[in-house]
């Protein structure tokens, strides 16, 4: 089904897989990938902020990535690294 929850879960899964693949290829440090995976395992986005940002930006990704980077802490710069929206 196409639900907001399913769409967000897919985007979070993408970021997890991207971090793991980039670490495997030595694009980002393995420690950063582990931190990203751990942070996103329990990640719950701020839906109200996503709604406001989507109304402003026209897409959900910039705000979602911002929130995920905030959750990733020291690994923030490696989250979404090299990806485009």
Walk me through this protein's architecture.
With 85 residues, the protein is an all-alpha fold. The protein has four helices and no strands. It has helices at residues 4-24, 30-41, 47-57, 61-72.
Which regions have little confidence, pLDDT < 50, spanning 5+ residues?
none
User: Number of DSSP strands?
Assistant: 0
Question: Any idea what the shape is?
Answer: globular
Intertermini distance: 22 Å
Averaged pLDDT:
96
Order of helices and strands: HHHH
Secondary structure: helix percent: 55-70%
Whole-angstrom Rg: 13 Å
Content of β-strand: under 5%
Structural class: mainly alpha
What's the quick description here?
This protein is mainly alpha-helical. The protein has 4 helices and no strands.
Provide keyphrases for this structure.
85 residues; 0% strand; mainly alpha
List the helices and strands and how they pair.
Blueprint: H1 4-24, H2 30-41, H3 47-57, H4 61-72
Helix pairs in contact: 1-2, 2-4, 3-4
């Amino acid at each position: 089904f196409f639900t907001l929850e399913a769409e967000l879960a897919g985007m979070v899964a993408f970021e997890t897989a991207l971090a793991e693949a980039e670490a495997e290829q030595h694009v980002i440090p393995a420690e950063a990938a582990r931190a990203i995976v751990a942070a996103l395992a329990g990640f719950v986005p701020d839906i109200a902020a996503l709604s406001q940002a989507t109304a402003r930006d026209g897409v959900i990704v910039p705000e979602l990535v911002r929130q995920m980077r905030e959750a990733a802490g020291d690994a923030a710069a490696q989250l979404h690294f090299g990806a485009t929206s």
